[in-house]
Design a protein that fits this description.
Elements: H1 3-24, H2 28-41, H3 43-71, H4 76-101
Length: 102
């Protein structure tokens, strides 16, 4: 093969490879749609999990506050406020994340 024919051959191969890769990426919207549906399907179980964690944290906090109150600890109100705030934060954050992403 001459140098001119060799250059034409490699140019044609490079063009075909570029065209084939462009065809391979043509259906990107379907992949993005599938990924979006997949991620949004996880929000309901994740929200319920956060609510369950909030319930457990609330129960543990209630027991802790009760034991401090029963023992006469002067720091009871601070502990109660911190546990109550943590439970409210979990509930509000789950609700806001759900409304923001769905």
């Amino acid at each position: 093969m001459t140098r001119k024919n060799l250059r034409f051959f490699f140019s044609a191969v490079a063009f075909l490879m570029t065209a084939i890769s462009a065809f391979a990426q043509g259906n990107g919207t379907a992949g993005i749609t599938d990924a979006t549906q997949m991620v949004t399907s996880y929000f309901d179980p994740a929200t319920k999990l956060i609510y369950a964690i909030g319930a457990v944290v609330g129960l543990i906090g209630g027991v802790k506050v009760y034991s401090k109150f029963s023992s006469g600890d002067p720091d009871t109100s601070k502990t109660a406020a911190s546990w109550f705030g943590a439970c409210i934060f979990l509930i509000v954050s789950a609700t806001i994340l759900r409304s923001f992403f769905l």
